[in-house]
Amino acid sequence: MLEPSHNNELPAIPGKRYFTIGEVSDLCAVKPHVLRYWEQEFPQLKPVKRRGNRRYYQREDVLTIRQIRSLLYDQGYTIGGARQRMTDEGAEGGLSMEIQAVISETIQELEELLKALQPRN
After folding, report:
1. For every one of its 121 residues, what pLDDT tens digit does the chain have, with 9 covering 90 and above?
2. Could you tell me if 35 and 25 are in contact, meaning their C-beta atoms sit under 8 angstroms apart?
3. Which residues of 48-80 are buried (b: 16+ CB within 10 A; e: fewer)?
4. CB–CB of 34/26 below 8 Å?
5. CB 27 within 8 A of CB 105
6. DSSP letter string over 59-111?
7. What is the largest CA-CA distance in the chain?
8. What domains are defined for the chain?
9. Could you give the count of Cα atoms lying within 13 Å of 48 in the half-sphere of its Cβ?
10. Number of Cβ atoms within 10 Å of the Cβ of 15
């Protein structure tokens, strides 16, 4: 598992429409029970629930979870502080952290692609 300060080393998000809780757990380096808890604490996190109360997360949910993870693990916020920060950013139209997450993910994907395209000796 990743150290808390290694949020930028999370795997790239595949181009799927829906992700199961297990997939999101792997993509965000957070255990499923933590994701379920965060759903109760953060109103921005509302995965689609289908048959048998199975959760299906969309890409924006994964980005939100990564943002929450960064606030809690990297920046040292408490749950209440992170909730307030997320609420304040939502009120300000604060896509800045989400945009930053997409940009850093895109950079990571491009770097991986560049490595794959370089000739091997």
Report:
1. 344 445 567 888 888 889 999 999 999 999 999 999 999 999 989 999 888 889 999 999 999 999 999 999 999 999 999 999 888 876 655 556 667 777 878 888 888 888 888 887 6
2. yes
3. eeeeeeebbbbeebbbbbbbbbbbbbeeebeee
4. no
5. no
6. HHHHHHHHHHHIIIIIS---HHHHHHHHHHHHHTT--HHHHHHHHHHHHHHHH
7. 53
8. 7-117 (1.10.1660.10)
9. 11
10. 6
> Tokens at residue 34, please?
């933590």
Cα(47)–Cα(55) distance, integer angstroms: 6
Q: Residue 13: name the closest of 88, 105, 112, 75 by CA.
A: 105
- CA dist 56 and 49 (Å) reads 6
- How would DSSP label each residue in 5-34? T-GGGSPPPPS-S-B-HHHHHHHHT--HHH
Which residues are bridge partners to 97 per DSSP? Answer: none
